[in-house]
Amino acid sequence: MKIFFRLLKFSKPYHHYIPEYIVYIVLYIVFGLLNFSLLAPLLDVLFNNNFPIVEKAPVFSFSADYFKDYFYFIINKYIESSGKFGVLIYVCAIIFISILLKNLFGYLSQRVLTRMRVNLLRKLRAQLFYQYSHQSLSFFHKEKKGDLLSTLSNDVVEIENSVVGSIQTIFREPFVIISTFAMLFYLSPQLTLFTLILFPISGFAISNITRRLRKKANYSQHLIGVILNIAEEAIGGIRIIKGFGAEKAVTQKFDDANKSLTKTLKSITNQRELASPISEVLGVTVVLIIIAFGGYLILGGNSTISASVFIAYIAFYFQIINPAKNTVNAFAMLQRGLSSGERVLRIIDMEQEIIEAENPISKNNFTDKIKLQNVSFAYNDAAVLQNINLEIAKGKTIALVGESGAGKSTIADLIPRFYDVTSGALLIDDINIKDLSIKDLRALIAIVSQEAILFNDSVLNNIVFGSELVDKDAAIEAAKIANAHEFITQLENGYDTNIGDRGTRLSGGQKQRLTIARAVYKNAPILILDEATSALDTESEKLVQDAIDKMMKNRTCLIIAHRLSTVKHADEIIVLQKGQIIERGKHEELISKNGMYSHLVKMQELK
Q1: How far is residue 143's CA from residue 184's CA, in Å, rounded to a whole number?
Q2: Which CATH number is 88's domain given?
Q3: Residue 294 is part of which domain span?
Q4: Other CB atoms closer than 10 Å to residue 604's CB: what's the count?
Q5: pTM of this prediction?
Q6: 549 located within any domain
Q7: What sign for the dihedral angle of Cα 590, 594, 599, 604?
Q8: Would residue 216 count as lying in a domain?
Q9: The pLDDT value given to residue 248
Q10: Number of structural domains the chain divides into
Q11: Reported confidence tier of residue 411, pLDDT bands at 50, 70, 90
Q12: Inside any domain, residue 452
């Protein structure tokens, strides 16, 4: 239940719900009990039994005896004035009003819980998405995309359906059961103590079912994540799947996971549904035993209660069966929701690797240089960079080259703090970037990556993405610099055209030019280009490279280059191998050294 109460904390502040809910639920219980409290006098009227004679109104005291005596005082008055039929109508009218009020307060209590429920789920989703959007890149390397999507969608829905859906039952039904038992004790302590002996038997049977459900629920949620992962990979890689004729293999993989999930869900549902009939059968069995035992006492003249009170006692006891059954069902449902709750809380409890300083330094300009000072970086204990020393002066262009896995992109990711250095320091204008406001740091940097990452939105919104103010004229100017204005104006709705999921309505070159327009619009002093032209055809590369050249003017640039012809004019070329700098200098200098850079250039010329 620890997870259950942790999930409930998301509905804070409680004072918006608890006082109001307690008032409604107490009134709901009071009027519910009143219905059956009137059953004994109603039977006495119908069967012509004598009422207790109460000639004077009793002195007020907050006790059951006071209310009982006062009720009989009123009945005696009605018998004198209206006869027994009048009393019957009077009791029926009170029962009707009490049922009406019971249901009214039940509905009002449900409205309070609904308000609590929707706020809890809103905060839960918001906290999850906050974690996703504020984690470092290493978090997304460790976690499967399918599992993350499953947690945000299926697990939260499961929490809504089971954990949050059980709140009403768990918060209301135990109160009903306790108050009903209090009334049963009042009517007959002897019978009630006898029935309590039988309760542990049903409790053991139900707890055995719920224990099994929890384990299977964990496995089912894992399988949903697997299915989502397979589906996401299949949709994203459909071209390759079809090209290699792998439809059958992928379908089989999906079917295997789907069959496992179906089998697990069937077992969970069967066990969960078993809880309700077991609790009902056990509850009715207890009632029948009470009837037999109570009847034996009454018929033998050993009971302290009358026949009408005994019937009222049985009616009260039947009122326990439904709340008990609902509580059992709620706890059975809860097991699956708690499994989802564990998965959600695991994400929420994850510490963020990129933590902003307590009192971060605000910085809105770049005046001197970027400096990497003895920087090392390791990922999962595997060294990626070792003792990198590098300076990028303002207005200069530095190129990083080397084989795949040399550490080029890692350096580019360290500057905006997508990762933190393992050792050493990374400084901007002699300030450690860990001391800077993360928002201010990233506002100084514009990035154009190899993969043109766009969003399912209009062209204009993709260009101004991340900006608080939208200046369409500036966006158009940025598009012109990026050689994108011409193709944008030819689109169906120009700058208001929706480009589809990840920009699927655009060609590769058009998508990349749009990402350049986005970087130009940001107008950041530091520019990072991560192999921005490597995935393009020759014609598109020429247009994009021209756009890049215009964008680089008056900016400090870090270029990660695969095609070395694009970095000839860099102020300095840094050659990396296995996370270390092995060569550095201008293009001509490095060619003359006949080292790694010269070798890479010759290899590309041979191509």
Answers
A1: 55
A2: 1.20.1560.10
A3: 2-349
A4: 12
A5: 0.68
A6: no
A7: positive
A8: yes
A9: 81
A10: 1
A11: very high
A12: no
